[in-house]
Amino acid sequence: MSRGWVHCRVGSFGLEAEWSIQSGEVLVLFGPSGAGKTTTLRAIAGLLQPESGHIEIGDRVVYDSASGVSIPTHRRRVGYLTQRYNLFPHLNVAKNVGYGLRDWSPAAAAERVRELIEVLRLDGLEQRRPWELSGGQQQRVALGRALAPKPEVLLLDEPFASLDMELRRIFRRELRSTLTSSHVPVMLVTHDREEALALADSIQVIDEGKRLTQGNPLDVLGQPGQERVANLVGVENLFTLAIESRNPRNGTMICVGGGLRIEVPLDSNLPNMGAEGGSEPSSDTNDYVTVGIRASDIILSTQDIQSSTARNRLLGNVTHVELVPPGYQITLNCGQDLQCQITGAALEELGIRPGMDLWAVFKASSCFLIQPPSQAELARL
Amino acid sequence: MASITRRRSIGLPNTGAGMGGAATLLYVLFIGLPVGALLFKAGQQESFFTTLTSGPALTAMRLSLVTSAISMVVIVLVGTPFAYLLARSKSPLLRLIDTLVELPLVMPPVVAGVAMLMAFGRRGVLGAPLEDLGITLPFTTAAVIMAQVFVASPFFVRAAKLGFQSVAKDHEDISRTLGVSPWCTFWRITLPLAAPSLLTGLALSWARAVSEFGATIMFAGNLTGKTQTMPLAIMSAMETSLDTALVLSVLLVLGSLTVLAALGYFAQRHWQGEA
Asked: Which is nearest to A56 in space by CA: A80, A20, A28, A26?
């Protein structure tokens, strides 16, 4: 278990972080570069002195500005994995893994090293030097080194940043199973959506040193409630539309604007961000809403699918076809530009090319309402 | 047109290579000829080993070895923590001190000797208080060591500083998160990783200390067995016995070559390809 809060100042950058992680839980810190993710990890590890704060690791208070407690890094029992691994170049694999076990009896240390080498499939590489290893092997040695002294919290700073796509997928799965079996609370920093979804039990979005939101990864990344969060996690379609009519019985309403006319969930469902967002929940008297639709939630069809449950069917003209791995992104002009994500196979089968007319089909529930920026947020921009 | 342009573009590097080759030859001769002549003349002597083991040469050699060894101990003990601080601190005061470290490198050694006399000499700033304590520094073996430390320490401090700077701060941070105290981290991570640079600096520093002449003769004088190191003995011998001068010179040249070989070895030993 680890929880706490810190206020840090590094030059002109201010950070206000707050977290709570249960044993065996992975909390992902998600945000752009410079958001304060690494600073948070370094403050927890004690490598950076906060201005004020309270940090608990396991059942110990390792930092508390009010009572003046500050346990130095080497007695905090944190495992810290940096982006570039920083394996010790003058030590071989076994000695790197066993580096933190100096206080253990030689027999116990040797046993622990052997165990980790086996779990991380590094057998046969014990005598290798770091520069004789592949990127993936280095990553596993670094993970083994961090796990060896049985830390009470594991801090992972973009652990996959220097691996290629293929390896990332493999190691993500590996890391997930290693973490599950070690029962250690984990804070993982990333700015990769896919990585966050694959690893997070809980996700916290931070930007400019402030926590924007926290919750279940699917909710936060799939249907973000705040405009800034939506921009950060990359929601492809955001429209500001006027409310034409509400239909409380269906739980939907009709919104129009810029040539679009779509049915979306009723705005009384707009998540109340409470103390978090700092603004009043929207009332029924709002005339405008911001609507988000993920590009992957839109179905494209050459014909109008009339007999379907999808509430929205829009005819549009293809203006752009762009390769966005793993598929293609189609820009469809339906009055306003709509971004749609499709696979390469679908592109070929339908023969999609610019200038073509297509129907965009999506459910009302695929549309989500986004809370407008609060006064405080507007003031910061 | 095209062919002319092409011929020119080929011609220029050729001319450059030709000039470079000539310059290299000239330079190698310029450095190699005197060294070669020295070795040749010394080799012509029939009494090389008798001269080597004769009183004056042996005394000077022993003194040079002992004083330079003590100087190296002093330089390493004081220079290492100092260099580490220079490498890690960002304070403006230390930036200034960092520049001052280089002063002995550009200062004429004779001036260094005069300066040390002004500080520790009998009529120097600290001369009287030291004398009250019963300490006399000028014209003693201690003065030889002080002169060597003064002129030779920057070579070590500079190399050690660069060595420590090349050790990633992240390595030290990681070590601390693994339960190793900052003090142990220095011994287990920082020092081993910076070792090649430290040894390079030590070799350069030793070469400079052994060849020290100007500051020594000013501050320590030229007393046989007490302050007359090898370079001083060579100068004295030139007036009386050319043989002794040649033998000592050859020894110093061999010492320099050893240092060069050591430098090459340390440079290769950097933590990229070393097993």
From this structure: A20
Query: Residue with structure tokens 């010790």?
Result: A88
Contact assessment for residue A98 and residue A91, using Cβ atoms and an 8 Å cutoff: no
Please tell me the distance from the alpha carbon of residue B66 to that of residue B73, in angstroms, as a whole number: 11
Which residue in this structure is represented by tokens 């033998």?
Answer: B247
Domain at A237-370: CATH code: 2.40.50.100
Task: Quick: pLDDT tens for B91-109.
Answer: 889 888 988 888 998 999 9
Q: Can you list the alpha helix ranges (DSSP code H) found in chain A? A: 37-45, 93-97, 106-119, 135-147, 165-182, 193-199, 217, 227-233, 274-277, 344-350, 375-380
Q: In angstroms, rounded to a whole number, what is the distance separating the alpha carbons of residues A90 and B270?
A: 10
Nearest to A81 by CA among B188, B173, B186, B272: B173
With CA atoms as reference, the chain B residue closest to A100 would be B178
Domain with CATH 2.40.50.100 in chain A: 237-370
pTM: 0.73
Beta-bridged to residue A79, according to DSSP, are: A154
Instruction: Choose the closest CB to A47 out of B173, B179, B275.
Output: B173
- Tokens of residue B39, six digits: 């070795």
Contact flag B193-A89 (C-beta cutoff 8 Å): yes
- What secondary structure does DSSP assign to A176-193, as a single string? HHHHHHHT--EEEEE--H
Chains A and B form CB pairs within 8 A to the count of 68
> Model confidence at B75, in pLDDT bands (50, 70, 90)?
very high
Structure tokens at A135: 């990127």
**Of residues A74, A84, A86, nearest to B176 (C-beta):** A74
Residue ranges of chain A that CATH labels 3.40.50.300: 2-223
Tell me the percentage of chain A whose pLDDT exceeds 90.
30
Strand partners, A368: A292
Mean pLDDT to the nearest integer, A2-22: 89
The amino acid at residue A125 is: L
* Level-2 CATH architecture, domain A2-223: 3-Layer(aba) Sandwich (3.40)
Record the tokens describing residue A189, joined without a space: 């920093």
Predicted local confidence at residue A280, as pLDDT: 44
Mutate which of A70, A71, A86 to disrupt the B interface (most B C-beta within 10 Å)? A86
Query: B178 to chain A: which residues are within 8 Å by CB?
Result: 74, 99-100, 145-146, 148-149
Which candidate from B171, B181, B275 shows the least CB-CB separation from A74? B181
The amino acid occupying position A299 is I
Q: Do B176 and A149 touch (CB under 8 A)?
A: no
Q: Which of A10, A48, A87, A88 to mutate to test the interface with B (most CBs of B within 10 A)?
A: A88
Tell me the C-alpha distance between B36 and B29, whole Å.
10
